[in-house]
Amino acid sequence: MNHKLLTIANHYGLKAQLEKTIEELHEVETEINVALYNDCVNKNELAEEIADVYNMLEQLEFLLGIKSSVTGQRNYKIDRTLRRIAEEKLRRAEGDEQ
Asked: How many other C-beta atoms can be found within 10 angstroms of the C-beta atom of residue 5?
């Protein structure tokens, strides 16, 4: 873990960082909604909010001791999505043959 984030996480503690994470998630959600519904992506704002969320999630992984669990779940979910994509392509190909 980034030493700077470790210092921040230890200083503020779990409760404060859970609350801050909710705040940062709301801010990234707002930027995503702007991009979706205004047909305009402010890349700088979105990048800033995504960075905030990444930083908060990394702190939560540390504070909760769940980094390896999160990594395992991420890999599982990526593989599951790739399987679903393969299944969709197969169904489309079978539909095209009919």
From this structure: 16
